[in-house]
Amino acid sequence: MGTSSAEELFSWLSTRKVEDIVIPGYIDRTLHEEKPFLNVWNTSLYVVTDDGMLRIEDRRAHGRLHVSRTDDLNDAEQDLDERVLNREYGEEFMPVSLEWQLLADGRDFNTLTRARYAAGPASSPQQGVVDCLELIFDDCCCLFVASEWDGLSIGTHGAFDRWTEYLHEDPESLHRQVEWIPPTHAH
User: Fold this and answer.
1) Of 44, 62, 127, 137, which sits 20 to 30 A from 9 (CA to CA)?
2) What are phi and psi of 141, to 5 degrees?
């Protein structure tokens, strides 16, 4: 689908019906064969819409997020196949819905009404690369994502402010904060 800027992706997302937020996972049968369990693979997250998905992935543990569009979860399953899955033991790809944790306001779908991101010296918002991201749906539901050393950190209300306040304690962290509001939603 090509490379798009963060703001182009927010604009696209604001015109879609957001139906779910999904993180890749897998059925792990190797550690506890008698009781398989679901293991989350938190290197990417997908905002599922009525026409495609917004993929948010870490940049291979470099402390940044890459935001892009995709049609399906094939890349997530391929990543797990290459890194983790042992299909000989019956392990299988299993996406995990976070809808009830992050979009639980009783609506059938949600709409992006605001986005914020922080961009540091190594970020490239024009290429969809930011340090952290907050998406607000219908002015009430919140998704925060940042890349940490062990994968994605996922949060909700207040997480963006805590993350950016922590960075301001370090004068070397020259992060700018950007807020985006859809033109149809601006006051």
Assistant:
1) 62
2) -90, 140
pTM reported for the whole predicted model: 0.90
According to DSSP H, which parts of the chain are helical? 6-14, 74-83, 99-102, 159-168
Question: What is the residue extent of each domain of the chain?
Answer: 6-180
Determine the Cα–Cα distance for residues 179 and 186; give it in Å rounded to an integer.
Answer: 12
For residue 137 the two structure tokens come to: 């749906």
Amino acid at residue number 13 = L
Give 102's contacts (C-beta < 8 A, 6+ positions apart). Answer: 21, 141, 142, 143, 156
Q: Is the separation of the CB atoms in 102 and 141 below 8 Å? A: yes
User: What does the pLDDT look like over 36-66, one tens digit per residue?
Assistant: 889 899 999 999 999 999 999 986 657 899 9
Nearby residues of 14 by Cβ (< 8 Å), 6 or more positions away: 111, 112, 113, 182, 184, 185
Residue 153: which of 168, 163, 161, 141 has the closest Cα? Answer: 163
